[in-house]
Structures are given as C-alpha cells and as structure tokens.
Structure of Sn-glycerol-3-phosphate ABC transporter ATP-binding protein UgpC:
Amino acid sequence: MTSVSVKDLSLNFGNISVLKDLNLEIADGEFLVLLGPSGCGKSTLLNCIAGLLDISDGQIFIKGKNVTWEEPKDRGIGMVFQSYALYPQMTVKGNLTFGLKNAGVANDEIERRVVRTADILQIQPLLERKPSQLSGGQRQRVAIGRALVRDVDVFLFDEPLSNLDAKLRSELRVEIKRLHQKLANTMIYVTHDQIEALTLADRIAVMKGGLIQQLDTPHAIYNHPVNRFVAGFIGSPGMNFLDGELEVGVSAVVKIGEMPVPVDRYTFNGSGRRTGPTVLGIRPEHIAFGDSAGAMPFSHEVDVEIVEPMGSDTLVWTRLDGQNLSFRVDAERPLQTGDRVRIGFDPARASLFDSATGNRI
C-alpha cells in the first residue's frame, strides 16, 4: 500500500524552478531517504509534503487522501527539524504534551502517549528537566518524541542529526533505525550525509538540481549508479574516475592511455556498446593489492605517492596513466611513499560512464 504519493510536483520561486515535475511513491512502512548536496531541493520537497510550502503544480497524497492544500496539522504527519525548537521554559514532559493539550486530547490519552514515547526513546528520567539541562543528543530525542506523541502514520525528518558531533550522530542513527523497526511507520528522512542514507534507508532518492537522479536500494545505488554524479556523491572515499576510450570489436576494452582494460564481462545497459570517450569508475575497496592483484583481469605496477592511515585500514594514493587513483589496504600492511606495488581489479565491478552525458553505459 502506498503511504505517500507525489505526482508531477513542481515548485517555482518567481522565475526560478526549484522542483521539477517530481514523481515519488513511498510504500507503507518504508524508510525513504532524500539525499543530495546543499541546494538540491531535498528539504524543499520535504516541506512541500509537510505543507509548509505551497507547490506550484502537482498533487500530494498521504494514505490515499489528497492533502495538496491541507494545513500541516491536518496531514497526519509528525516532523522533526534540524533545530530542536523546544520550549525552553517548559519541562520535557511539557514539550511533549503541549501540542496534544492544544488539540484537545484527553488527559489519560496524553499520559498514555507520553509514557509510551518516553519508554521507546528511553527518556523517562528526563521528563521533569528543562531543555537547558539536557545534552544535544537528549534534546534531539525529545524533539523526536514530540513528533512520536502525535501518533501519526508518517514521520518527516529534516537533517535531525546535523547539529550533533560524530559520536552522537552515530548513536542516534542506531536509535532511529531501532525506532523504525519497532514502530514500522513510514519515515521520510532528509540528509546530505551518505553514511546516514546508506545505513538507514530502505530506498534512497539521490537528488540534484530539483530532480531525482536515482531512486533505489542502498546496495543498487552504491554498486550500480545511474550516472557519474550519483557515483561520485555516494562512497567515502569517493569512486575513482579514469578517462579512457571504449573500443568495441571482437572484444571490448577501455584503453587508459595505452593500457587496455577488458570489459567483456561488463553488463552494458540498454544504450548498448559503443566506441568513444568513456569514464571508468572503480571504488577504492574494489582494487586488489599485492599477490591477489596479479590474478585480476587487469593489473599494473604503480608507485605509492601518499599514504593515509584511516585506523581500520589505510588509503593509498597513486597514479594510473597520470590520473589519480586511490585504493584501500589492510592497516597492518606497511607501505611508504615511493614503494612500487602491483594493483589490480575486476572490471565487472567497475562502472562505465559516457564522457559527454555522464550517464552509465
């Protein structure tokens, strides 16, 4: 069953087109992440779904009801913002109950919802404290709790963890995932953090310039990006891009300078094979090093230029035909600048992009 449906949605600010004919179907109980760089339109789309912005064209349905022109309070949503937006003069319990009291919810029902929410978020000991007495992580839990007490079907999160430090972000990310597993409500989550997107989402909508570039599972987006933008935006460290020439004859190869990379095992999309300038993309973790590199369909000796210890592993930078290339090695493998090593990879794990359009071949 569809929980949220966006049909042909456009939003213009004067002559500026911000969102362009967007279509999006979100299943009941799905965790969908809107991911993209600043200015791509992800928060704007969320605000349109929430009713905080009037759209220029299109329709929005929530649980089958056309809510395009409904007030936010009538859409059956709970929203968590980047800022905590808590009432400083009220206790945690006061913040949780304020909206319910204004809506005329019975006192016993308010108490039931507060107890349930405090139990889910483990904030029972904080109910009589004021926001000034809470840490950043505790305040964000309360902000999430204020949405939960509304007992709605759809929750909207607008970069709720971006104000927290790395450790707190990691901890609350786990808590949000547990929350979704426990509640099974539909959740739409906006972030520019790809780690949040990959770890939380059932599906990710990668956005750029007011358009959805790719909508798919984290695994599909990571391993089969539809264009170079998606490939470059997902992954840390980023995908390596090597300019080359696709030559298709008896066999198919991408020539990186004078080095032929066999791509017969590569699965070409509906555009078919063709000859011409091509970009080969390969992720650092898909590049083998040392003895195992020699068994790969493509291997080559390179010079180590930069070594970046990352803790659990090491990121090594080199050049292939004068083009930057990074690969990962075990942290226990001693490498130094100037070392000559062999690397290799299976082109079946690579992505090929048209040099002109950036689209996957």
